[in-house]
Amino acid sequence: MKDVNIGIDSIGIYVPETVQDYRYIGKETGIPEDVILNKFGIRGRHKALSDESVSDMAEKAALIALNGFDPKEIDLVVYCGSEYKDYYLFNLAAKVQESIGAINANAFEIHSLCSAGVYSLKVLKSMMKEDSSLRNVLLVTSSKETDLVNFKNQRSRFMFNFGDGAAAVLLKRGLNRNIILQTHMITDGRFAEDVACYNVGCKAFGDDNGGKFVEIMLDVKDPESMKERLDPVSLSNFHKAIENSLKKSGYSKNQADFIAPIFMKKSMLDEILKEYGLTEENSFILKDYGHCQSADAFISLVEGMKMGRLKDGDVAVLLGAGTGYTWAATTILWGEIN
């Protein structure tokens, strides 16, 4: 059977209008503004209003991605965003399918926290290559995890850069443009329970809390222990993910042209870029977005195109990393391919 390409036809990005800048974050956290701006690497984050749900943002990003494309032609809608959704035990993919009018599409969800967007490209590429009935697939991610971050909880300070937003990606079978190549992921389950909403789930609900309301928030069991174990492996695992994704795609490490990263400290991104002979001009720093869960790499692609940093013929590598811990990279051959 002749091989068929799976390409990205369009990407839609949506972020709420309200912006909380580094001054606001500094005031709320008690951390000096210059530390928020320079060490945390964030100038501002978008914050959804109380009446704007995760599915609302997902729908808006989806409609931007479709840009007039008939939703009745979509064969599958997949949600890969935050597990903090409109409701507990709720199928957000089905909600988006209905709200955008994709009446002929099936819908399901993929969850791998903040690496899900990057890895979902591999899953959907494989499905679309194997099943010729999957011609047009919409991948959607959304996050409102700012609701879960308590600025007074210093254990969770690495989450103070979280921002709200959504992204949607329209994939097409047989599209010879923005072709999805190969993916590599690394998982280190030693970190599986380091970060969680510990008061939600069967373990928490099995406890007697005397009927009292318990604030739901993301937390870190032991920040010092996590940092001690994470620091020695994180950068090297990013490199392994990038280099293996490139190698599987038929490229060497010096052939990468653009890195579309997850939100990370500028110092770490600088180290990653330097390793591949690249500079900030070959990437996009998410300092005005913050960390929008698995939407980050897609935001970077869109902004990279706007700035002229991502060009036709470029080999682009998308990066994701999720607590748990996972590191993922997917290589895309960008632009029109003859």
Please mark out the parts with pLDDT under 50 across 5 or more consecutive residues, or reply none: none
Structural class of the secondary elements? alpha/beta
How many domains, in number, for the residues?
Answer: 2
How many strands, what sense, and barrel or not for the largest sheet? Answer: 5 strands, mixed
On the 0 to 100 scale, the average pLDDT is 95
Q: Class of the largest domain in CATH?
A: Alpha Beta
State the CATH topology of the largest domain: Peroxisomal Thiolase, Chain A, domain 1
Order of helices and strands: EEHHEHEHEHEEEEHEHEHHEE
CATH architecture classification name of the largest domain: 3-Layer(aba) Sandwich
Order of strands across the main sheet: 1-7-6-4-5
Radius of gyration equals 19 Å
Portion of residues in helices? Answer: 25-40%
The number of E-state strands comes to 13
Q: What sort of overall outline do the alpha carbons produce when their principal axes are compared?
A: globular
Helical stretch tally: 9
Portion in strands: 15-25%
Could you state the CATH homologous superfamily of the largest domain?
Thiolase/Chalcone synthase
